[in-house]
Amino acid sequence: MQPKNKHVRAGRLLAALLLLLLPRVVPAQSAPPADSVVITHAEFLSLLDQFHPIAKQAALNTERAQQEIRQARGAFDPNVSAKYYGKALKGKDYYHDWETALRIPTWFGVDVKAGWDRGVGPYVNPQEYTAAGGLSYVGLSVPLSQGLLIDERRTTLRVAQALTNLAEAERRAIRNKLRLSASKDYWEWALATQRLRLLAANEQVAGTRFAATRQRVLAGDLAAIDSVEALTEFQNRQAQRVAARVQWQNAALVASSYLWDADGRPRELPPTAQPQALPPAPAWRALRPDSLAALTAQAQERHPDLAKTRAKQVQLGLENRLALNKLLPKLSVDYNLLLPGTPFGLEGRPQPFVGGYSSNNYKLGVSFAQPLLLRTERAKRQLVQLKLRDASYQFSNDQRQVANAVQAAANDWQALLDQLRLQQQATVNYQRLRDGEQVRFDAGESTVFFINSREASLLGARQKLAELQAKYAQTQAQLRYAAGGD
Length: 486
Known about the structure:
By secondary structure, the chain is of the alpha+beta class. The chain has helices spanning about 1-20, 40-50, 55-75, 150-220, 225-255, 290-300, 305-325, 355-360, 375-440, 450-480, and strands spanning about 35-40, 80-90, 90-105, 110-120, 135-145, 275, 330-340, 345, 360-370. The strands form 2 sheets. Strands 2, 3, 4, 5, 7, 8 and 9 form a 7-stranded antiparallel β-sheet that branches. It has a two-stranded parallel ribbon with strand order 1-6.
């Protein structure tokens, strides 16, 4: 028995020397702080909508559209013009010609005119000669064919009004795309936070086991190699936690890129800021068939891509109507009622609408023009009609793509629900296996290797569950985006 006792004592001495060479456990300090401030997903998107420069840039589209309408309405602004020509040579007056006019365009294509002309002098043009007090007039300019029902200025205004919907659709498209990107990065930040918590807790368990194994080896209950196994696993988990912390920091940095203040300066997430928890099991809800139908109908009505194509079709329809009107001849009538004297000092108190005054004191003009071949006008209309057909084909394709995007997001939603439930059950089973292995280890029927293997499987299951939870939240954002957002 004496050689055997010597062998045991030698083994214990060797184990003690080995344990003295092994480093002591350093508690993990890399988990997110417990006293953190939670920034919810809704709060994150609210800050994004208020202060992000891309969101502000998108809002400029609406203001730009309003200014384009204002510019188009400028074609209906009253216009005042005046000109004077006079000639004198060697002290002799030849002529003095003064023309003043006010022109008021109307929505119906008729222009109202008023003015005062004065042409005096021995050499004035007979057509422009007036009495010394000048000649006032009031009249109308009426298109009888081309330009009566529609013209360039009315078309421009209607197009600008139609493009308001296009500007709003572009604003919503930019905003929805920004919100989708921000939502995905937010949940990546939440996933990185959860992964770091899991790995920090896993590292703490390994550190505690290493310390306990060290004591049991010193007491002679375990072989020295078990402490090496426990230390190796502890160091491996430390390395995993360090890598997870870097991923967490980078994810927080990406999330910070969406934060700005009211003065347009970029902001950083404070060290204590944390995202909200990943969607728990009570939040895993199936998408009802009527909800899917409602989302599809909403997408067909409100999706920015479809709204932009509709606005383009309205624009092309107006241009097609104008091109059709251009095929008509240009025929217009100008009638001016002449009143002697200045506008506010008429001579002889004329009564234009009494007796035959208006039929004896007027200036009348008729103009007519018509291209013989109309090749330019016909080609323009054909080009517009081709663009209309192109927009119609594009709209049909966009409708199909939007409907497919909604259905695909709904499919992902349902598949993730099934995966989440299965993964949750698998995680519970891995937990049971780990707990059972711990009982066997405490009873001396298992080894450090086996319990480490069980914990590694449990950690992998928990991380997989967290990834599915984050993907579920991202799919919710994707479905909202596919349905048109807002």
